Amino acid sequence: MNVWFKNWSCTTVWGFYGNGRVGLRLVEDGSPVATVTINTAVRVGLDEIIVKEYEENEGLIEALVTAGVVEPSFQAVYIGSFNSRCARCRLTPVALAEAYGLPAPRAPEATPDRDVLRDR
Known about the structure:
The protein has helices at residues 60-67, 93-100, and strands at 2-5, 8-16, 22-28, 31-35, 48-52, 70-79, 84-91. It is mostly beta strands. The chain has one domain. It has a 4-stranded antiparallel beta sheet with strand order 1-2-3-4. Strands 5-7-6 form a 3-stranded antiparallel beta sheet. Strand 2 (8-16) and strand 3 (22-28) form a beta hairpin. The chain is globular, with a radius of gyration of 17 Å.
């Protein structure tokens, strides 16, 4: 997936932490731009990630929402002794498929009942 973050035109690189949680980095031309996720003790679902939204990652959630990586609603969480602001975000179906190497979800096929372009 493509993500415009600050002055970088990035692509998503998915991976997994040692405990099996999904991780995400943004890269531009093969060079790392941002590590999006953090691996914390906060419980998350298989379709959720914890996004680091402080310091150099400020504005990252908005970029991920715009690119269709995460849903627009999220839950703020505070991590560590400094209460660093992070967000618990739900992946979109397309991002979820990409993260786990699954086939991309398809749009429903048009049928006479659902074909909005048919003659009226």
